[in-house]
Amino acid sequence: MSIELYLIILIVVLAALYFVVPFVAGTFLKYRGKRVITCPETRSPAAVEVDSAHAALTAAFTHPDLRLKTCSRWPERQDCGQECLLQIEIAPEDCLVRHILASWYLGKHCASCGKKFGEIQWSEHKPALLSPEGKTVEWPELPPEKVPDVLKTHFPVCWDCHITETFCREYPDLIVDRSHVSEGVHRDLRG
Q1: Of 126, 74, 66, which Cα lies nearest the Cα of 98?
Q2: Which one, of 90, 117, 87, lies nearest residue 102 by Cα?
Q3: Sheet strand arrangement including 45-50
Q4: In this predicted model, what pLDDT tens digit does every residue of 123-142 receive, in sequence order?
Q5: Element counts in the chain: helices (H) and strands (E)
Q6: 68: left (phi over 0), alpha (psi -120 to 50) or beta
Q7: In the list 27, 66, 84, 102, which could disulfide-bond 37, CB 3.0-4.6 Å?
Q8: Model's pTM, two decimal places?
Q9: Rg (CA), the chain
Q10: How many angstroms separate the CA atoms of 4 and 73, rounded?
Q11: pLDDT in tens, 78-102
Q12: Angstrom distances, CA of residue 40 to CA of 52, 55, 82, 84
């Protein structure tokens, strides 16, 4: 083969990569992550994960082919028709656990310190939840399918208050309670 033919093939491959790779990567990112859907069979929440790699690869040639990678109802119901995928196709962001939590926290106030929640930065300090029993819980500790019910009974807590409460609960012998000291004493000590 001549050098011109190699150059033409190289240009075609690079052009295909230039146009296809961003679309494939975007599809992969769009469908990755745990989601909470309403199971069409039971009408109750179920946690699912889409096979995002398969969706991305099929998106390179046609419309993304969605199929489940995991479901909280498996292995008992692994042979279901996966009708829940329609919910993900219609609103892929709305059923993403991260989106559900971010929407729930937005505009609420910390149950402990009163700090108002803004947009959640998932790569930094994540907020927690305060149970009706008064114990803070990080949301990754909860099964995703339980998130809708938990959000009805728990209260939002900022990262700082969660860490403080957790430390106090786990290391009570290291805590010094100065709540009985009056403010006047603090003023006198400062000079």
Answers
A1: 126
A2: 117
A3: 34-38, 45-50, 68-71
A4: 788 899 999 998 999 988 88
A5: 7, 6
A6: beta
A7: 84
A8: 0.72
A9: 25
A10: 56
A11: 788 888 999 998 988 888 988 999 9
A12: 21, 22, 9, 6
